Amino acid sequence: MQITTSPFVPAPATQTTAPSKISSDFDTFLKMLTAQIQNQDPMNPIDSADYAVQLATFSSVEQQTLTNQKLDALAGLMNVQGMAQLASWVGQEARSAAPVFMEGNAVTLSPTPQMGADRAVLVVQDANGNTVAREDIPQNRAPYSWTGTDITGTPLPKGTYTLSLESYNQGLRIGTSAVESYGRIHEIQTRPTGPRLILAGGVSLSADQITALRSPI
Q1: Residue 167 shares a structural domain with residue 193
Q2: Domain end among 64, 88, 112
Q3: Domain check: are 115 and 187 in the same one?
Q4: Lowest mean pLDDT: which of 81-95, 161-175, 196-210?
Q5: Rounded to an integer, what distance in angstroms lies between the CA atom of residue 190 and that of residue 84?
Q6: Where are the stretches annotated Disordered (predicted)?
Q7: Smallest Cα–Cα separation from 121: which of 133, 134, 131?
Q8: Structural domains counted in the chain
Q9: Residue partners of 197: CB distance under 8 A and separation at least 6
Q10: Do 155 and 175 share a structural domain?
Q11: 191 and 173: one domain?
Q12: Range of the domain at 36
C-alpha cells in the first residue's frame, strides 16, 4: 500500500520567477511604446488617448497573469491537502460503481433493484464487453456476496468485470442499473485533474465516485 505523488513545485518558487518575467515584458512594452512615439508622423501624431488604451490593456493582461498564477498555486496547495486527507483511506474498502476486480475471493455487492421488481438478474461482462455470466439474486437491497462464476458455474478468470442489474416484473424488464461493490484501496495517485484512488487490479476512480467506506472484512 502506498501513496504515489508527482513532483510538486512549491508556490513561492513559481511566484518568484513570474514577476521577473512580467517585469521583462513591461520593459519590452515601454521600449515599443517609445519607438512608436519616436517614429510617429509629426503631421499626424498619435492621439494620447491611444497610449492610455495601450497602457490600460497591458496592465489588465498583467493583472490577469498574476491572478492565474495565484490560482494555479492555490490549486496545487489544495491538491496536496486533498492527498493528505485521503491518505487515511489507503487500506480501507471503498464502495463504488466502478468495475470489479475478481481474483477468486468473494466480492460484496450493493444491488439496487427497481421498485416493484419481482426478479433481479446480475449481469457480468468481461473487459471486452462480452456477457460471461447471468445469475438471479434476491430482489432486495441487502448486500450480496458475488463469488465470480460464469454461466456454467465455473470460476471466472482473474480480471476486471463490469456488473449491472436487470430488474423484472412479471417477466418484463423494467430497468437496468449499475451495481456498486466494495474494493480495497491500494494507493492514491496525483493527476492533473486531482487525486485518483487505485483499487485492486488497477481500477482507478476519483474520490467523488465513492459512496461509502468500511474497514476490511
Answers
A1: no
A2: 88
A3: no
A4: 81-95
A5: 11
A6: 1-20
A7: 134
A8: 3
A9: 86, 89, 94, 185, 187, 188, 204, 205, 206, 207, 210
A10: yes
A11: no
A12: 2-88
